[in-house]
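[job 0412] stage=complex_fold ligand=3-methyl-2-oxobutanoic acid status=START
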Amino acid sequence: MKKTVLDFNEMKRKGEKITYLTCYDHPTACLCQKAGFDMLLVGDSAGMVVHGYKGTLPMTMEQMIAHAEMVRRGAADTFIIGDMPFLSYQLSVENAIYNAGRFYKEAEVDAIKLEGGRRVIKQIEGIVEAGMSVMGHIGLTPQSSGQLGGFKAQGRTAETALELITDAIAIEKAGAFALLLEAIPPEVGKIITDTLKIPVIGIGAGMHTDGQILIVGDMLGLFEAFTPKFVKKYANLSEIIEQAFVDYIAEVRTGKFPEEKHCYRMIDGEPEKLRALLEPGPPQ
Ligand code: KIV
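[job 0412] stage=complex_fold status=DONE, emitting C-alpha coordinates
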Protein backbone atom coordinates (compact mmCIF):
# COMPACT_ATOMS: atom_id res chain seq x y z
CA MET A 1 0.00 0.00 0.00
CA LYS A 2 1.25 3.49 -0.82
CA LYS A 3 2.80 5.24 2.20
CA THR A 4 1.60 8.73 3.19
CA VAL A 5 3.15 11.71 4.96
CA LEU A 6 1.64 10.32 8.20
CA ASP A 7 3.55 7.04 7.72
CA PHE A 8 6.80 8.98 7.26
CA ASN A 9 6.21 10.89 10.53
CA GLU A 10 5.53 7.59 12.27
CA MET A 11 8.70 6.05 10.78
CA LYS A 12 10.72 8.97 12.19
CA ARG A 13 9.08 8.54 15.60
CA LYS A 14 9.89 4.82 15.64
CA GLY A 15 13.44 5.30 14.30
CA GLU A 16 12.68 3.34 11.09
CA LYS A 17 14.87 4.54 8.23
CA ILE A 18 13.10 5.93 5.14
CA THR A 19 14.40 4.54 1.81
CA TYR A 20 14.34 6.93 -1.12
CA LEU A 21 15.83 6.84 -4.63
CA THR A 22 15.69 9.03 -7.71
CA CYS A 23 13.84 7.56 -10.68
CA TYR A 24 13.14 8.96 -14.14
CA ASP A 25 11.55 6.25 -16.29
CA HIS A 26 8.93 3.51 -16.40
CA PRO A 27 11.05 0.31 -16.36
CA THR A 28 13.15 1.56 -13.43
CA ALA A 29 10.00 2.65 -11.58
CA CYS A 30 8.55 -0.88 -11.92
CA LEU A 31 11.75 -2.33 -10.40
CA CYS A 32 11.82 0.30 -7.62
CA GLN A 33 8.26 -0.50 -6.62
CA LYS A 34 9.00 -4.26 -6.62
CA ALA A 35 12.07 -3.65 -4.42
CA GLY A 36 9.90 -1.70 -1.96
CA PHE A 37 11.24 1.86 -1.78
CA ASP A 38 9.29 4.16 0.57
CA MET A 39 9.59 7.17 -1.77
CA LEU A 40 10.83 7.98 -5.26
CA LEU A 41 12.11 11.37 -6.43
CA VAL A 42 11.70 12.39 -10.04
CA GLY A 43 14.75 14.60 -9.65
CA ASP A 44 15.97 17.34 -11.95
CA SER A 45 19.27 15.41 -11.78
CA ALA A 46 17.66 13.81 -14.86
CA GLY A 47 19.29 16.78 -16.59
CA MET A 48 22.72 15.22 -16.09
CA VAL A 49 21.91 11.55 -15.65
CA VAL A 50 19.43 11.12 -18.53
CA HIS A 51 19.61 14.19 -20.80
CA GLY A 52 23.40 14.63 -20.77
CA TYR A 53 23.37 18.33 -19.74
CA LYS A 54 26.27 19.66 -17.62
CA GLY A 55 23.88 20.55 -14.78
CA THR A 56 20.21 20.68 -13.76
CA LEU A 57 19.41 24.22 -14.95
CA PRO A 58 18.18 23.41 -18.48
CA MET A 59 15.40 21.11 -17.24
CA THR A 60 11.88 22.39 -17.96
CA MET A 61 8.46 21.67 -16.42
CA GLU A 62 7.49 19.81 -19.61
CA GLN A 63 10.51 17.49 -19.34
CA MET A 64 10.01 16.94 -15.60
CA ILE A 65 6.31 16.16 -16.01
CA ALA A 66 7.05 13.69 -18.80
CA HIS A 67 9.51 11.87 -16.50
CA ALA A 68 7.06 11.97 -13.57
CA GLU A 69 4.27 10.49 -15.72
CA MET A 70 6.51 7.58 -16.71
CA VAL A 71 7.47 6.95 -13.09
CA ARG A 72 3.85 7.15 -11.89
CA ARG A 73 2.77 4.57 -14.49
CA GLY A 74 5.50 2.20 -13.25
CA ALA A 75 5.04 2.77 -9.52
CA ALA A 76 1.34 3.36 -8.92
CA ASP A 77 1.62 2.36 -5.24
CA THR A 78 4.73 4.33 -4.32
CA PHE A 79 4.93 7.86 -2.87
CA ILE A 80 6.36 9.98 -5.70
CA ILE A 81 7.88 13.45 -5.40
CA GLY A 82 8.27 15.79 -8.37
CA ASP A 83 11.33 18.05 -8.33
CA MET A 84 10.57 21.66 -9.28
CA PRO A 85 13.05 22.65 -12.03
CA PHE A 86 14.95 25.95 -12.12
CA LEU A 87 12.68 28.98 -12.76
CA SER A 88 9.49 27.01 -12.03
CA TYR A 89 9.15 28.52 -8.51
CA GLN A 90 11.57 31.45 -8.15
CA LEU A 91 9.55 34.06 -10.09
CA SER A 92 6.56 34.39 -7.74
CA VAL A 93 4.43 32.51 -5.24
CA GLU A 94 1.60 32.23 -7.82
CA ASN A 95 3.98 30.77 -10.39
CA ALA A 96 5.29 28.27 -7.80
CA ILE A 97 1.74 27.16 -6.86
CA TYR A 98 0.80 26.84 -10.54
CA ASN A 99 3.80 24.66 -11.41
CA ALA A 100 3.48 22.51 -8.29
CA GLY A 101 -0.18 22.03 -9.27
CA ARG A 102 0.83 20.96 -12.77
CA PHE A 103 2.92 18.14 -11.26
CA TYR A 104 -0.15 17.05 -9.25
CA LYS A 105 -2.69 17.34 -12.07
CA GLU A 106 -0.60 15.99 -14.95
CA ALA A 107 1.63 13.38 -13.25
CA GLU A 108 -0.32 12.55 -10.08
CA VAL A 109 2.65 13.10 -7.78
CA ASP A 110 2.21 12.92 -3.99
CA ALA A 111 4.48 15.88 -3.21
CA ILE A 112 6.91 18.32 -4.78
CA LYS A 113 10.45 19.28 -3.78
CA LEU A 114 12.11 22.65 -4.16
CA GLU A 115 15.57 23.96 -3.35
CA GLY A 116 16.48 26.76 -0.96
CA GLY A 117 16.10 27.92 2.62
CA ARG A 118 14.60 31.16 3.93
CA ARG A 119 14.53 32.69 0.46
CA VAL A 120 11.80 30.27 -0.70
CA ILE A 121 9.68 30.30 2.48
CA LYS A 122 6.85 32.26 0.83
CA GLN A 123 6.69 29.71 -1.98
CA ILE A 124 6.62 26.77 0.47
CA GLU A 125 3.81 28.45 2.46
CA GLY A 126 1.83 29.18 -0.70
CA ILE A 127 2.10 25.63 -2.09
CA VAL A 128 1.18 24.11 1.30
CA GLU A 129 -1.78 26.52 1.64
CA ALA A 130 -2.96 25.37 -1.79
CA GLY A 131 -3.17 21.84 -0.37
CA MET A 132 0.04 20.26 -1.66
CA SER A 133 2.94 18.62 0.20
CA VAL A 134 6.41 20.12 0.01
CA MET A 135 9.85 18.65 0.68
CA GLY A 136 12.54 21.28 1.29
CA HIS A 137 16.14 20.88 0.06
CA ILE A 138 19.15 22.65 1.59
CA GLY A 139 22.92 22.22 1.77
CA LEU A 140 24.37 21.70 -1.68
CA THR A 141 21.56 22.93 -3.90
CA PRO A 142 22.57 22.10 -7.48
CA GLN A 143 20.36 24.80 -9.06
CA SER A 144 22.43 27.47 -7.27
CA SER A 145 25.78 25.64 -7.48
CA GLY A 146 27.16 28.65 -9.40
CA GLN A 147 26.57 30.89 -6.35
CA LEU A 148 28.04 28.18 -4.08
CA GLY A 149 31.24 28.03 -6.15
CA GLY A 150 30.48 24.59 -7.62
CA PHE A 151 29.21 21.22 -6.42
CA LYS A 152 30.79 21.63 -2.96
CA ALA A 153 29.91 20.37 0.53
CA GLN A 154 28.16 23.02 2.66
CA GLY A 155 27.96 23.85 6.37
CA ARG A 156 31.56 22.95 7.20
CA THR A 157 32.10 26.03 9.43
CA ALA A 158 30.12 26.88 12.58
CA GLU A 159 28.65 30.01 10.92
CA THR A 160 27.50 28.26 7.73
CA ALA A 161 26.19 25.29 9.77
CA LEU A 162 24.12 27.74 11.85
CA GLU A 163 22.70 29.22 8.62
CA LEU A 164 21.62 25.73 7.53
CA ILE A 165 20.02 24.97 10.91
CA THR A 166 18.14 28.29 10.76
CA ASP A 167 16.95 27.46 7.21
CA ALA A 168 15.82 23.99 8.30
CA ILE A 169 13.72 25.38 11.16
CA ALA A 170 12.16 27.99 8.86
CA ILE A 171 11.26 25.29 6.28
CA GLU A 172 9.56 23.17 8.94
CA LYS A 173 7.66 26.22 10.24
CA ALA A 174 6.51 27.03 6.67
CA GLY A 175 4.70 23.67 6.58
CA ALA A 176 7.04 21.35 4.66
CA PHE A 177 6.38 17.67 5.40
CA ALA A 178 10.05 16.65 5.03
CA LEU A 179 13.50 18.06 4.36
CA LEU A 180 16.36 16.86 2.15
CA LEU A 181 19.94 17.66 3.23
CA GLU A 182 22.64 17.40 0.57
CA ALA A 183 26.42 17.23 1.10
CA ILE A 184 26.78 18.50 4.66
CA PRO A 185 28.78 17.11 7.62
CA PRO A 186 27.13 14.34 9.67
CA GLU A 187 27.34 16.47 12.85
CA VAL A 188 25.17 19.13 11.21
CA GLY A 189 22.86 16.47 9.76
CA LYS A 190 22.37 15.10 13.27
CA ILE A 191 21.55 18.48 14.83
CA ILE A 192 18.96 19.20 12.11
CA THR A 193 17.47 15.68 12.31
CA ASP A 194 17.19 15.89 16.11
CA THR A 195 15.80 19.45 16.02
CA LEU A 196 13.05 18.94 13.44
CA LYS A 197 9.85 16.97 13.99
CA ILE A 198 9.45 16.31 10.25
CA PRO A 199 11.50 13.52 8.60
CA VAL A 200 14.94 14.56 7.38
CA ILE A 201 16.45 12.66 4.44
CA GLY A 202 20.13 12.82 3.57
CA ILE A 203 22.30 12.53 0.49
CA GLY A 204 25.89 12.91 1.62
CA ALA A 205 24.63 14.16 4.99
CA GLY A 206 25.89 11.28 7.13
CA MET A 207 24.32 8.41 8.99
CA HIS A 208 22.04 10.20 11.46
CA THR A 209 19.26 11.40 9.15
CA ASP A 210 15.83 9.71 9.18
CA GLY A 211 16.39 8.30 5.70
CA GLN A 212 18.75 8.18 2.72
CA ILE A 213 18.47 8.95 -0.97
CA LEU A 214 20.91 8.21 -3.78
CA ILE A 215 20.79 8.97 -7.48
CA VAL A 216 19.80 5.80 -9.27
CA GLY A 217 22.44 6.06 -12.00
CA ASP A 218 25.18 6.55 -9.38
CA MET A 219 24.25 3.60 -7.17
CA LEU A 220 23.82 1.28 -10.18
CA GLY A 221 27.16 2.33 -11.66
CA LEU A 222 25.46 3.60 -14.81
CA PHE A 223 26.43 7.29 -14.72
CA GLU A 224 30.12 7.61 -15.45
CA ALA A 225 30.72 11.38 -15.88
CA PHE A 226 31.62 11.84 -12.19
CA THR A 227 30.95 10.13 -8.85
CA PRO A 228 30.52 12.25 -5.71
CA LYS A 229 32.22 11.09 -2.47
CA PHE A 230 28.88 10.19 -0.87
CA VAL A 231 27.95 7.57 -3.50
CA LYS A 232 28.10 3.85 -2.81
CA LYS A 233 27.92 1.75 -5.99
CA TYR A 234 25.72 -1.32 -5.48
CA ALA A 235 26.26 -2.57 -9.03
CA ASN A 236 28.38 -1.85 -12.08
CA LEU A 237 25.72 -1.79 -14.76
CA SER A 238 27.72 0.24 -17.26
CA GLU A 239 30.25 -2.64 -17.52
CA ILE A 240 27.47 -5.22 -17.89
CA ILE A 241 25.63 -3.15 -20.53
CA GLU A 242 28.75 -2.35 -22.52
CA GLN A 243 29.74 -6.04 -22.59
CA ALA A 244 26.22 -7.00 -23.76
CA PHE A 245 26.46 -4.45 -26.61
CA VAL A 246 29.92 -5.72 -27.64
CA ASP A 247 28.70 -9.36 -27.59
CA TYR A 248 25.61 -8.51 -29.68
CA ILE A 249 27.64 -6.64 -32.30
CA ALA A 250 30.11 -9.56 -32.54
CA GLU A 251 27.33 -12.19 -32.85
CA VAL A 252 25.49 -10.25 -35.58
CA ARG A 253 28.73 -9.76 -37.49
CA THR A 254 29.70 -13.44 -37.27
CA GLY A 255 26.18 -14.76 -37.93
CA LYS A 256 25.95 -16.40 -34.48
CA PHE A 257 22.73 -14.45 -33.82
CA PRO A 258 19.87 -15.08 -34.58
CA GLU A 259 19.62 -18.86 -34.06
CA GLU A 260 16.82 -21.24 -34.98
CA LYS A 261 15.07 -20.60 -31.62
CA HIS A 262 14.76 -16.86 -32.44
CA CYS A 263 12.92 -17.47 -35.78
CA TYR A 264 9.18 -17.52 -36.67
CA ARG A 265 8.76 -20.54 -39.00
CA MET A 266 5.97 -20.70 -41.63
CA ILE A 267 2.97 -22.92 -40.87
CA ASP A 268 3.42 -26.59 -42.01
CA GLY A 269 2.79 -27.03 -45.75
CA GLU A 270 2.95 -23.26 -46.48
CA PRO A 271 6.58 -23.15 -47.72
CA GLU A 272 5.68 -25.70 -50.48
CA LYS A 273 2.59 -23.64 -51.46
CA LEU A 274 4.73 -20.52 -51.60
CA ARG A 275 7.30 -22.26 -53.80
CA ALA A 276 4.47 -23.31 -56.19
CA LEU A 277 3.16 -19.73 -56.27
CA LEU A 278 6.64 -18.48 -57.09
CA GLU A 279 7.28 -21.08 -59.86
CA PRO A 280 6.41 -18.76 -62.77
CA GLY A 281 8.89 -16.29 -61.18
CA PRO A 282 8.61 -13.61 -58.47
CA PRO A 283 5.66 -11.15 -58.77
CA GLN A 284 6.47 -8.20 -61.08
O1 KIV B 1 17.47 16.15 -8.40
C1 KIV B 1 17.88 15.29 -7.62
O2 KIV B 1 18.09 14.13 -7.97
C2 KIV B 1 18.15 15.69 -6.25
C3 KIV B 1 19.11 14.81 -5.50
C4 KIV B 1 20.20 15.59 -4.93
C5 KIV B 1 18.44 13.99 -4.49
O3 KIV B 1 17.66 16.67 -5.78
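The chain has eleven helices and eight strands.
[job 0412] exit 0
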